[in-house]
Amino acid sequence: MQILSGQQLRALDEMTVHEEGITSLELMERAVTAFTGSFCKQFRPSSGPILIVCGTGNNGGDGFATARQLHRAGYNTHVVAAEFGKRSPDNQANFNAAKRLDFPFTLLRAGNPFPKPAPGVILIDALLGTGLSRPLEGYWAELIERWNETEDITRVALDVPSGLPADGPATGAVFMADHTFVLGYPKVAIFAPENAVYVGEMSLVKFKLSSVRTVLHVGPEGDIRPNQMLTEGYVATLVKKRGNSDHKGTFGHALLVAGSFGKMGAAVIAARAVLRAGAGLVTCHVPRSGYEIMQISFPEAMCTVDAHWYQTTGVGDLSQYATIGIGPGLGTEQLTAAALRDVLTRYAKPLVIDADALNLIAQSPSLFALIPKGSILTPHPKEFERLFGKTADSFARWRVQGEAAKRNELVILLKTNHTTIATPTGKIYVNTTGNPGMGTAGTGDALTGILTGLLAQGYEPATAATLGVYLHGLAGDLAAEALSQEFLLAEDVVNHVGAAYQELARVRN
Asked: Which residues participate in K(+) binding (predicted)?
């Protein structure tokens, strides 16, 4: 699904009004009807009284229309109409319609005391939406901070939390939502890791709009930001169907170069994930101290053994492997750096580079030029910083990520709560699966194994990355559902990859 900028969203609304021959007020009613439908599925009238704070722009107009619809649906509704600046025409129309109904309606001007919401209230923020042009300050900023500090209430943002720009970093007070109902299309700001505390649980509210293709040209040239959100329906189409005559040779032979003394667990987890993702064969190159560990822990894997007892110092013939995954638990010793250089020099096909392999490249930047085109790099934010330098915020980091992927013809994953996948074509995908329970040792190694297993099967690198990241997160979600987030281990994620495949098959069929 396309991720749109604020400018593109406004253009899409205008295009819908023009093409369908409707008024903008009718389009607002359509959006609000979809929102209240989603809201009512999550919150019943018995959930608590509703307090809707409405601004003077179109987001406030959404709020007034929401109040009208919820009141008619039997909710105990109270509207607070903030007064700053001139009301938009659609806001004024819904303001007038809401005032005619029989529920509490309070006007609020800067400087007026705002009553503290009572415990149990569901506070719906329709103050600003995407209409923010500068940081909030003064009375309205203090008001939002007061809401954020109020305990025993549920905070809901209508479209985006007030104070959060749609296309850039937050620099002032921001409404801290427990739930954000995003209207129409996702906005890039909701995926920034630093904004997670403001967005809370995100729900996408779909309603009929014109084709998004009509507005993709809107905006500055060279705008580099996440522009595609991965959805289950799209990812399900990426999975290859298996033929009756396929066999382990069909599904590829992967080499995994991983592990060092004291870090063999990373190699075991990654190796299991290679085969769980569907590869036919995996050979693990490990130091001598890891041979018995690998053979006993994962008998399905074959092994080649390094000359060194503690670390990898050299890998033999590479010609038989469909791909290579390198880095989990590898260590950063000089002899291992030399071995990495040797692998990158002799292997020309796309491979997966993770963890200590990325750290070795950051220490010796000349290694970067040796990375085969199409390879998949999987840094977390600190590894990304070591490779590409510091950035001010996620928006700047996304730009660097996209530029680096395009310039070097690589696929670069940036592992965060919403992992982004930058491809050489300039697209940046955002993942929507995964959960905080996956923030535990070894889950990154599992992802490396899944990506390696997909490349071994012949998936194109960008496809392997998008499918692999989504599959990894979905397996984590299914594992957390079965076991709880607190209980989750990386092994649980690997063991639920099959269930994740089944879920995608169900959607596809």
From this structure: 59, 125, 162
